[in-house]
Amino acid sequence: MRKFLAFLPAFSFFIISVAQTNPVTTGSQDSAWIRDNYTKKEVYIPMRDGVKLFTSVYLPKDATEKHPILMTRTPYSCAPYGETSYNSNLWNSHRRFYARENYIFVTQDVRGRWMSEGEFIDIRPFNPNKKILPTGQAGNNDVDEASDTYDAIDWLVKNLPNNNGNVGVFGISYPGFYSTMAALSGHPALKAVSPQAPVTDWFQGDDFHHNGAFFTMDGFSFYAGGFGFPRPKPTTVGPRSNLQLPRNDNYQTYLQVGALKNFMALTGDSLQFWKDMYAHPNRDAWWEARDPRNFVADVKPATIVVGGLFDAEDCFGAWNLYKAIEKKNPPTSYHKLVMGPWYHGQWASTDGTHLGNVQFGSNTAYWYQNNVEIPFFNYYLKGKGDISQITEATIFFSGANEWKHLAQWPPAESQSKSIYLQANGKLSWGKSSTPLSGRGEGLGVRFDEYISDPAHPVPYTEDVHYSRTREYMDDDQRFASRRTDVLTYQTEPLAEDLTLAGVVSADLKVSISTTDADFVVKVIDVFPDDFRYTGSVGQPNRGVGGTYPMGGYQMLVRGEIMRGRFRKSFSNPTAFQPNKVETVKFDLPDVAHTFKKGHRLMIQIQSSWFPLADRNPQKFVNIYEANDSDFQKAIIHIHHDAINASNIILPVMK
User: Fold this and answer.
1) Most buried residue, 137, 248, 320, 385, by CB count within 10 Å?
2) 143 and 79 in contact (C-beta within 8 Å)?
3) Are 182 and 66 in a shared domain?
4) Same structural domain for residues 466 and 383?
């Protein structure tokens, strides 16, 4: 959910973009066409407690039939403001296809943001016990984002001319969260919803935290960059951060700032949600109330959850919101899942052919737009077309570069199979035969060791830059393999394809010299040394340039971090006993990838991932209150003997 305020107005329309079904020649649907065929209106819609929400409406001038409403609720602004100012994405993006279908477009500033009245609350908890009271009489406990959506839809279908009474809601990232809340609104006019990369759990896997580890770079740049600043009254002008930090090398800058308490000192006391996070370092009732998965037992509209395999922000949310909806609703309900090989929001772009150095063989964004999203909304909002081709789970498998149309997720053909860490950096489908844990002459190596030094943490990418990249999700990991504080294990070249489909689980047997540590596990596809894409250009002799060398490329397929103190419970952290072997077991977000014949499967293990995740002081203290002096080195042992057999549980698809 990492955004920068300067781009928020443009983003508010990007998040609801969809692709054209047919190519449109340049100039065939320009700004003049939109103005000739659409009228823009700006209205304040009253909520049940009397608060009014600013809403931008684009109405088709066509009066030959009634038209459906396509709505996004956003904290990122309805801009451009003013009824004579039209957003250029209506004619520059594939959203123009919907315009040719005469959809009514609605974008609403959520409560307390931009031009809407009221108080903004981050990931406002859903209240299943709201009282239905006459407008103006509802109290603070009787409104939430679901009720605001209900009230907005109710007003729209009763007041917009020539609407057909059918409403769809969708949005990406934070608007994906509001789409989930819309699905819980219960309004009968809401026929179709698509939460896309939905913010779902900001403690376990989305945006701000992964398994309890704080994602400082995303969180700090987003909140201290402007989003978290208070907005005393409705405005069309967003806040700007006055922070003056070096913006060339994020690794160096975040290392110099130091402990998390120093980041708090930089933000001051005006960022309420930032303070709330610091006040809730463990998973408690406050976090549980903000997890929509706890409330999705009655999702009535047809729903498609969409996400990206390589989404650096809300990959967890897409996979796990779908699973929660599936688990808690009748099997006859229409709830589907689509996951493509995308960065955050790439499915709504014009180019889904690649991410960074890795190519996907086709424009996967166009395929999704034309074969899933547009048919879905046309079917439920216009009664048009056929959606029989949309299966329960439409999943792109990287590596093989193919879509699979599955009857369930994870697929029935996927079975858990452990691959074990071995001495000398090897992986094997069987346990080590070494009987005891320890080191000794002639007895073989029973564990691998590295020193985790918070003063020299493992970088998340080898590039020097300031903003967190989206490409790190499939970046080359050769830089990490070369570090002494990263353990690397790999198979021999595969004799046949190996396809993974589902959750990967790390089951590590560890001992550490201190009382806390983090553990990062990466699943990596090692390309053959002679691999190259068609059209590659070699490096000039003694010069810089050419195509990135893909031979031996170590593609990150999935990586995840686990804060060791939460190995037994996210709500009740426990210290490690120094030098005692303990189990650290945790899940990585789902994988859909084929390791091709001749490739290798690699596993990397490390204890920092900086500055993506905050540094663990490796001392059992409240990390949000830790001092710079608390940070210390730790000796980490990863055991792989017959008794303490560290392994990675893979979802192997037959």
Assistant:
1) 320
2) no
3) yes
4) no
- Final residue in a domain of this structure, among 341, 375, 406: 406
Q: Is 325 in the same domain as 470?
A: no
Looking at the structure, do residues 401 and 459 belong to the same domain, yes or no?
no
Give a three-class secondary structure readout of 289-357.
Answer: CCCHHHHCCCCCCEEEEEEECCCCCCHHHHHHHHHHHHHHCCCCCCEEEEEECCCCCHHHCCCCCEECC
Cβ–Cβ under 8 Å, residues 93 and 350 = yes
270 is a domain residue? no
* Cα angle, residue 596 at apex, residues 593 and 597 outer, rounded to 5°: 150
Domain count, the chain: 2
Strand 52-60 and strand 104-109: the pairing is antiparallel
pLDDT tens across 493-517, in order?
A: 999 999 999 999 999 999 999 999 9
CB atoms within 10 A of CB 433: 9
Q: Which residues contact 482 (CB under 8 A, 6 or more apart)?
A: none
The verdict on residue 247 lying in a domain is no
Q: Is the peptide bond before 23 cis (omega within 30 degrees of 0)?
A: no
Q: What is the CATH number of the domain that holds 196?
A: 3.40.50.1820
CA separation for the pair 240, 225 (Å, rounded): 7
Give 138's pLDDT tier (boundaries 50, 70, 90): low
Closest CA to 250 of 421, 78, 460, 510: 460
- Report how far apart, in Å, the C-alpha atoms of 132 and of each of 47, 156, 182, 188 are: 12, 19, 17, 16
- Answer yes or no: do 401 and 448 share one domain: no
Q: What is the pLDDT of residue 137?
A: 63
Q: Is the same domain home to 15 and 149?
A: yes
Residue 256 belongs to a domain: no
Same domain, 518 and 573: yes
- Contact between 330 and 340 under an 8 Å Cβ cutoff? The reply is no
Do 497 and 362 share a structural domain? no
Give the pLDDT confidence of 197-242 residue by residue, as tens digits. Answer: 999 999 999 999 999 999 999 999 998 888 999 999 999 998 888 7
**Domain range spanning residue 30?**
5-200+291-406
Q: Enumerate long-range contacts of 626-630, CB under 8 Å, 24 or more apart.
A: 626/259, 626/260, 626/261, 627/259, 627/261, 628/258, 628/259, 628/262, 630/259
pLDDT of residue 136: 59
* Chain segment 151-184, per-residue pLDDT in tens: 999 999 999 999 999 999 999 999 999 999 999 9
Q: How many CA atoms lie within 13 A of 499 on its CB side?
A: 16
Q: Tell me, yes or no, whether 274 lies in a domain.
A: no
Q: What is the pLDDT of residues 530-565, one digit of tens each?
A: 999 999 998 888 888 889 999 999 999 999 999 999
Question: Of 385, 406, 427, which residue is a domain's last?
Answer: 406
